[in-house]
Description:
The structure is a homodimer.
Chain A: H1 8-17, E1 27-29, E2 36-40, E3 43-53, H2 65-81, E4 86-96, H3 102-118, E5 122-130, E6 136-145, E7 161-165, H4 170-194, H5 198-204, H6 215-222, H7 228-236, E8 243-246, H8 251-262, E9 265-269, H9 277-285, H10 290-296, E10 303-307, H11 312-317, E11 321-328, E12 334-337, E13 343-345
Parallel strand pairs in A: 4-5, 9-12
Antiparallel strand pairs in A: 1-2, 2-3, 3-6, 4-6, 7-10, 7-11, 8-10, 9-11, 12-13
GO biological process, one term (chains A, B): thiamine biosynthetic process
Binding site for Mg(2+) 3 (chains A, B): 34, 79, 246
Enzyme class (chains A, B): transferase
Amino acid sequence: MTEISKLGEFGLIEHLTKDIKIKNESTKYGVGDDCAVLHYPHSEVLITTDMLMEGVHFDLTYIDMQHLGYKSAMVNISDIFAMNGTPRQMVVSLALSKRFSIEDVEQFYSGLRMACDKWGVDVVGGDTTSSYTGLAISITCIGEAEKDKIVYRNGAKETDLICVSGDLGAAYMGLQLLEREKSVYYQQVNEARKKDDKRALEELAHFQPDFAGKEYLLQRQLQPEARGDILAKLRENNIRPTAMMDISDGLSSELMHICKQSNCGCRIYEKNIPIDYQTAVMAEELNMNVTTCALNGGEDYELLFTVPIGDHEKIEAMDGVKLIGHITRPELGQMLVTFDNNEFELKAQGWNPLR
Amino acid sequence: MTEISKLGEFGLIEHLTKDIKIKNESTKYGVGDDCAVLHYPHSEVLITTDMLMEGVHFDLTYIDMQHLGYKSAMVNISDIFAMNGTPRQMVVSLALSKRFSIEDVEQFYSGLRMACDKWGVDVVGGDTTSSYTGLAISITCIGEAEKDKIVYRNGAKETDLICVSGDLGAAYMGLQLLEREKSVYYQQVNEARKKDDKRALEELAHFQPDFAGKEYLLQRQLQPEARGDILAKLRENNIRPTAMMDISDGLSSELMHICKQSNCGCRIYEKNIPIDYQTAVMAEELNMNVTTCALNGGEDYELLFTVPIGDHEKIEAMDGVKLIGHITRPELGQMLVTFDNNEFELKAQGWNPLR
């Protein structure tokens, strides 16, 4: 018997799907991008799906049901944007153990619908069932796109510019912050128990985690936003990305997907990677390298895309988009140029659910 | 806090979706049928989704991974047929705990693809992730249909004839059989342990459950078939159902969905409910009422549909379809007429209409 971790998520998917032959005219593009693409006369339909398991993808001691609903919907909407599509419909399946109440499910749905309302998405169906073991969430989002406007991962060309929206690493720092406060809490509880200090234990019932000055990190972790606004700006400026995806597993890992599928190399510059002030402060507090966090942190849900070099000035003039490097010939590899002008090969150390 | 069991599955769905307003032109029909219907110029797209949790929906001591893959795909394909659509694509998400190997996942996929190949369905994507607690499966199936050929649950009219394909209750009897053999096995193991009978324990390692003469029941439980063949026959005979759904929760429950959504009553005849010989024998062995099993057993994945009374002769002449009753005015209720001409009101699940 072979352990699944041997192949990892992408290896496993490749292994399972390598000899799938497409049978239907309406199936245009199968496994291997943010969405599958279905072709109908006069419209292309995009489909993406995500499965989130309690304990693996979320921890209900950190996130409440409403934020969880919001985030679950938003990360699927983000996959539709990542193909330059417009999200339209969503089907939602929940499996719930007995500890969840109707109020919990209502909270989840209210968050989910807040995210859907933001982008005009209809909830059209789903499945609600029971589970013996915590909460499982499966969401499928359906979008629409004009045929010649869909952006795949495989369209990057030599000399194209590499761009990212927003800033990176903050969601990961938010998670570190939540984990730190949780461990501070348990440490204090354990100490009070050891000393049998009843008063301290009582006070700990009202423990307030210290998030002052780090609100942005929490927001990025608990309430990510899909960047449909960036797509609108690109359209306004007549910029059409040659390749695009959303950053869910970390910049490094996603960039390597684009390079692999576009058969090219890349060169990005550490000094250009957009990092928020709070992210930098938190990384220093935790004695972590902030660039590593931005490269491998994941859950940013920002857009990573490439544009023709001719769009250089337009991109420079755009708010909320940063030019971080360029596409090269494949034999030049996937390189990070550091502040001190050293070069390192990028490694995908992104979050691996099957590790 | 309110327990979810208070509302039940359908109550919960209704509660959560009652004030959803549809925002997109392409959303034609949302929650409340076998599939959601999306409208695109020149084609309607059907979407259905199902979530299956280990321990709740399946027990891996009864079913192997290949059959599980086959069944998971087939029940989703069945939902597309239930709207008179053609299944086209499927997205598959799996969450796996560490006890599963790559070979297990391969087995699952081989079964899944067998089912998909049977009906020309393309596997176009999905998600593979980890779980702390067993196996979770989420499948979304996408189908196509011509606008005026989609059959909803709400089109049944007074005097329409009620029909079912195949026979009912066998899948439920198959489950009873599997459970019986499992308990026989554990009983023998416990006895041998009590007596410290090492030889008996060794022999029990090669325990062969007794399924002789009951192969059909097992097949119905482990390898259900979606009834696309019945749709083809109906088309050949120029019969267009007025309402239709597939029988996953039991005839009684499904018939009540059709009556509620079509605002009508119904009258079905016990003597007409199609039951296989093996189902009847097994019910007798277990001292169960076979009609109750057929009404409430579930997992048959046969088609339940209504046709105009003018199609009476055509239906009578069709193989594999049985006429079991007719649609009435709503005030006449949903009635079962027994062998001895007594009338009982149908109740969904759990309730025994025959004492």
